[in-house]
Batch of 3 targets.
Target 1
Amino acid sequence: MISSTDGAVTAAPLRTGFRWLQLGMGIVCMAMIANLQYGWTLFVDPIDHAHHWGRAAIQLAFTIFVVTETWLVPVEAWFVDKYGPRIVIMFGGVMIALSWVLNSYADSLPLLYTAAVIGGIGAGAVYGTCVGNALKWFPDRRGLAAGATAAGFGAGAALTVVPIAAMIASSGYQQAFLTFGIGQGVIVFVLAFFIQPPRLSIPPKKKQLNLPQTKIDFTPPQVLRAPIFWIMYLVFVMVASGGLMTAAQIAPIAHDFKIADTPVSLAGFQMAALTFAISLDRIFDGFGRPFFGFVSDTIGRENTMFIAFGTAALMLLTLSAYGHVPLVFVLATAVYFGVFGEIYSLFPATCGDTFGSKFATTNNGMLYTAKGTASLLVPLASVISTAYGWKAVFVVAVALNATAALMALFVIKPLRRSFILGKEAESANPATANAETRAKTGTA
């Protein structure tokens, strides 16, 4: 290991196969934190049946988890830049295990909320570090690398949905929290010993005009002053709010539609509609993240966003009209999550393209807080559904996704290109930049 000039923990040598190994370990770590978000819906009704706290009060724990997971990522990213990814991921493994252990013993809402805070801190430490590390290792394939890493988070729950549901049914939700919590935490903790950042800065490759990439590494304060960052943040919130609502509420929605336990046969498999939907959702979500990341590396980030966000709006509209049909519910939610999860590959890749690799972990962490902002709307969905039904919730989500699709193509695309070309032109003409600086400061 070699010490860097800023005191960071030593970095790994640049070898072709080594970066794929790093990517693979990051994917596994992400899979181990997936259940904290995507497996949560399985626990909502069992917790309510045991304690009668009400869905809205229980779902507040989900919101607390997502807010904590996302809004603290920039702080955790600073620790990554300072001390390296290993210690941060080890810390995350301990915290996610502790969170679910506490959930297994929670006999009050304050304890449930405390566990959500701890789990959010741990999941954010793992998520932000693994995605940031992938962006640094793969500046030439940012969409694919970020998508594959995020796929672990999207599809990781697919392998454990059935075992968790079975354990909840046979041994109670408390035992499921305890068993899976400890197992997930241990795996993350062990893998952390082997995760390293690249030693050398790998220059991005401009492959085509529809994939603009900056040559400049922007610091976090510079990023926060850029209007394009806040426009991307707004679109992220608009799309993420619908996906988080659906992920958190899919079990209550299925129960309210009275189809949760209805058998559904598809491609030779037969399962209860809810279990089938959650399993397919995780598979499609996991596949969609690297797929759309790869597509965006080819046709451009914003073009891919337009396709994905538009498809998401169509699927939500289908659910609002025909979601009470078990087969439609299963297929529409699967396709929806297949196109929803790409925000976790496209936005990190777009952030890296726009603001550079050097501070990619912190800059992407700041953008990722949009997910926490979006999570604040999840409890609101329960309120709206109680007053007006789930159709009203879906209609709002359709409007947000359709608007986001148009903004990606007609707002983000031209503004981002203008930002990159403008900043590079300023960098190429330092005399002009210095003159502007003197004019602003009033110096001679």
Target 2
Amino acid sequence: MAHKELLARHRAVMPKWLALYYDEPIEIASASGRRVTDREGTTYLDFFAGILTNAIGYDVAEISDAIRAQLDTGVLHSSTLYLIKSQVELAEKIAELSGIPDAKVFFTNSGTEANETALMLATQARRSEQVLALRNSYHGRAFATVAITGNRGWSASALSPIKVSWVHGGYRYRSPFKAMDDKDYIKACVDDLREIIETTTSGDVACMIAEPIQGVGGFTSPPDGLFRAFKDVLDEYGILFISDEVQTGWGRTGEHFWGIQAHDVVPDAMTFAKGLGNGLAIGGVVARGDLMDAINANSISTFGGNPVSTAGALATVNYLLDHDLQANAAKLGSRLLGGLRELADKHPVIGDVRGKGLMVGVEFVGPEGEPNAGAAATVLAESKARGLLVGKGGLYGNVIRLAPPMTLTEDELEEALGILAQAVEKA
């Protein structure tokens, strides 16, 4: 079926707000390694990995074999009303990797559900509906997670089950504190946090939730140490801290397994999803045992932590640990950042190159430094035309997001840099 015909059918039955990339969207029909092939036979090097979800790449035997083995049992689902061995084994591994004392794990189907669960835990434990969130954040598309999403392009409603106060810090490039050095930037953001707590809340705030690197917001991040400084303030008020690791988890940032570790912080809870399942639908929360047990009503997750997704996720975690993909992300991420900064030196249309590991953002600007969404759209399209798939985001839609599978090779990295250089020439 040609893409044009499928697009017409898609538009007839799917909501108009369901975003699609490109003027002529594609269907990915097959894949292997870091390359995908569309329905019309064109092959691309994938540098967005299903929005960071295909973290190990495509057609990985160890993961596929684990899924097939579970399928061969005939048990695709049982619900959490029954014991699931792979769920318990995966929870044990995540609890250990988290570094959170006495950790417990609850599995969901997505990052949205994970963040909804974390908010429910915090508001229940603190008996408060007040939440602190960062400007330019994105935490999901459900009722409460839309409320804590500080990006108007992804926030469909002002209605909310919680009361949110917005804190500076996550998006440094266009921050009013941009010109400051790291130390003064952190101090300014901490002063802002204190003032927000003192002026916009009644003090008994449930939690702060933050992405160590803002994903949809354009792979933006504060200087290392900001969240350590925030946590010290939060502790004074008894406010819980939740790290949203949906995009930063599993070693993608290279230097650490979890994004928040760059700030020398052990959060009260972390949420996760995306890369854990390498394409399977799975998310969850890992939290201190007392916080996880704060809910005093019955609850289940019908599909969360099902036998198929946990078998695949367990194989995924084992693969990335056995092959030290965190080290690969650190090594190739350094080269990716360096190559893009060399490109930025030649092209004023690139205002900022940022990120860690294999999670890199390129912000495009106009002559006066204003957001240049047109340039980002051009690079998105021109990269595709040359066989490279990249992502796009940012508050103003002017950031190209690069997050290839963590099994990326050096040759593939150099290929992508060459394509990006050609695409930027057209911006």
Target 3
Amino acid sequence: MKETSFDLDAEIVELTPFVPDQQTGTTAPLAELAFRADAWLPDETLRLRAAFADDCTLEEIATVLGRSHASIATRIYDLGLRRNSRRSWIAWEDEELARCYMHEPTATLAARLGRAVSALYARAQLLGLSEPGSPPYSGWEDAQLRAGYAKGVPVAQIASLIGRPFAGVISRASALGLRHACQPDDWSDAEMARALTLAATGVPYVVIARALASEGFPARNSRSLGQRLRKLGYGRGWGRPWIIEEDELLRHAYATGASLTPLRERLGRSPHSIRWRAEALGLRGTHVRRDGFRQGPVWTAGEEARLRADYGKVPTRDIAKDLGRGVRAVLYHANRLGLVHGFMRAFSAHEDRAIRNAWTHGVSMVDVAHALGRDPAVVGKRAARIGCRFNDPARPSRGPRTRRANRTPVTLQSLLALNAAAAVDANRSIAA
């Protein structure tokens, strides 16, 4: 099978000629790219690859190509070249490593030196640049660990006492086979039943642990208590699957228009969990009070009709002012209705043609934006993308583009008919 290469020669500037559509008009010419004096030429890249394959140092490659160390190292990194040799370190690399190590990311420094990250770590250790590892635990520290775990002292306090990190203390205790006094395994049936009874009341785990200790059960912390309750199948609503009985209670609340707050407390669910389950069951929007039990006024059919008609065409602040609501309330309700802002919708082929006609016949961009129901800045960006710049200094013959304040309002239909009207005038002039 013949191998296909997708690398283009430097002389190629066009892959295929482009013929513009006569209906849509001409497009903007290709922009010229400024030449960079430090750009890498194909011949230089080939010489760099050859020198790198010969295991030349960065200093030698920089001397041959007449470039700096940083430029050579960056190009090697961009090309994805990696060394597999065991070349020795030179004085310049050691100086650069000593100067920048621990002050910038090791991966960046490795890319500049053209070496692997592991090689930098090994060299830094030989030069004494690496931080020393943690000293081994002494007999005194192990004794404090054993005494603290036996007495149920919090691990954070033990770590502060002996001057070790929290994770290191837990790791050392695990290696010694220690188990904290607040996490014993001797859970009795009576203790588990009492813990479940207290958890059903909704009190925090810290309060439950204190209540169990006051009743004569072993002292435990809130973390071990929560882990044990989750093993028993109890949860506070997070991640707990919904059962059929809970779904029926939720449907009944929506059917009767009851408040969802008592249901959340009864099921032990969060408001977000209730909303998510209602949407999954198709109950969203079926509640008698569509806006819930909020304090704000209920949206009427006339207000929603006004919102649907003007959203995206009239500034949101003006809509909120006319409706007597806040801007955030208008945005939230528009989202509930599934409305998309007009300034964010995609441009159609008719709108693009209207922009081209307006640009050709000298219509103001503000009038075009008003006709399309969009923001002038959005119309200006779209016009530039399709090759129509309304404020192009290279077209002074067009004259200033003034707004049509005292004329007939500009509409999408009038903009689309501009080419047809110009053609009729041209035919009349020819006939005359």
